[in-house]
Design brief:
rod-shaped, single chain, 9 helices, Immunoglobulin-like, Serine Threonine Protein Phosphatase 5, Tetratricopeptide repeat, alpha+beta
Length: about 375
């Protein structure tokens, strides 16, 4: 061995260099890892080594477990996916989403979801919810049809009647409200309709052709005022007459009576109109008794008429009677001589019968 410091040959077993005096570090000739530990580890590995056949069985068993685990996981995922898919296509899901959209005032989406719910189940609740969304979205015609469908499904329900009444009230469609009263409603439902309706006034006499004066009474909701016109214009509180007593139409020809109910807060109902055509008929001729002839004794003439409200007028000078002539009230004594009695009947409208004459020759 040589000194690493001075390169002088040193005797085996010497701990110092005789030439430079440096201490020597003796390194054993063997490698502990190679001579002791490594063989031990190799022996241990040899002891734990699994036979090839058994190792394959273990690997096969582990593979089966992994396959089973993966299969279960896939089934769970598929099951969850199917469950989610199934729920998102159910009536309850569409109704829940529709209600959520309705609360958010997204009426377009709400209507879409409610339509989808109805495709799954045409229930009263779905139609009611759809109608509410349509009304809130101002789709009034669609809402009306939907509420009517809900009424068909549950005709005794008060909520749908209330919603329809509110719809007609908001659109001032009081004709439709009044039409609801012709349905087979319960007393409670009728009360609801009456509460919301500002119905057109009721006319005691229908329009038509008459040969006498017409007296028309108007009636409406208790807390409403009624205004009317007789000239064909639309009545209002500013253009019309406040109704207080029956209206007499006493003019020959055609008269259009129009009336409207107005609430105390100034809300107008529907204008109703009736046309009355009056054609007065002249009174029938009066009847004289006796009708004339030669008389030798004192005689009284009786005059009758079938015109209840007519008045009878007469003259003895051959002229045509008028309302300024003598009025017949009691039997008339025939005067002496040759006389011509002329008689007419005048009714309250000034219509006159024909002139009836009688020639009376009284010679005592």
């Amino acid at each position: 061995m040589k000194c690493p410091f001075c390169n002088t040959e040193i005797e085996d077993g010497s701990l110092y260099c005789n030439h430079c005096g440096s201490a020597m570090q003796v390194v054993p000739d063997f490698n502990l890892l190679e001579d002791d530990v490594l063989p031990s580890m190799l022996d241990s590995t040899k002891k734990r080594q699994i036979p090839l056949g058994e190792q394959k069985e273990i690997e096969k068993h582990l593979n089966k477990k992994w396959i089973l685990f993966i299969s279960i996981a896939v089934l769970v995922v598929l099951g969850l996916g199917f469950g989610v898919y199934h729920y998102t296509h159910t009536y309850d899901y569409f109704m829940a989403k529709g209600n959520e959209a309705y609360k958010s005032k997204d009426y377009t989406d709400a209507i879409s979801f409610y339509h989808s719910a109805i495709k799954k189940n045409e229930s009263y609740g779905a139609y009611l919810a759809l109608g509410k969304a349509q009304q809130a979205g101002e789709y009034y015609d669609e809402a009306e049809a939907t509420f009517k469908k809900a009424y068909e499904l549950n005709p005794k329900n008060e909520e749908v009647i209330t919603l329809l009444a509110l719809l007609y009230d908001s659109t001032n469609d009081f004709d439709a409200l009044e039409e609801m009263l012709s349905w087979e409603l319960t007393e409670e439902q009728i009360a609801i309709v009456n509460e919301y309706g500002i119905f057109a006034p009721h006319f005691s006499m229908k329009g038509g052709t008459y040969n006498d004066d017409v007296l028309v009474a108007l009636s409406g909701k208790e807390d409403c005022l009624i205004y009317y016109t007789l000239d064909g214009t639309e009545p209002s509180s500013h253009n019309g007459t406040l109704y207080e007593e029956p209206i007499e139409i006493s003019k020959q020809g055609t008269t259009l009576l129009s009336a409207v109910c107005v609430t105390k807060d100034g809300k107008y109902g529907v204008v109703a109109s009736e046309s009355y055509e009056i054609t007065y008929i002249a009174p029938n001729d009066p009847v004289l008794s006796p009708t004339g002839g030669r008389l030798t004794k004192e005689t009284y003439i009786t005059i009758t008429s079938d015109c209840e409200d007519g008045k009878i007028y007469y003259t003895w000078d051959g002229s045509v009677p008028t309302s300024n002539s003598y009025q017949y009230t009691d039997p008339i004594l025939v005067p002496e001589g040759n006389n011509i009695l002329s008689v007419i009947v005048l009714d309250k409208h000034g219509m006159s019968s024909s002139v009836v004459k009688g020639n009376y020759i009284y010679l005592p």
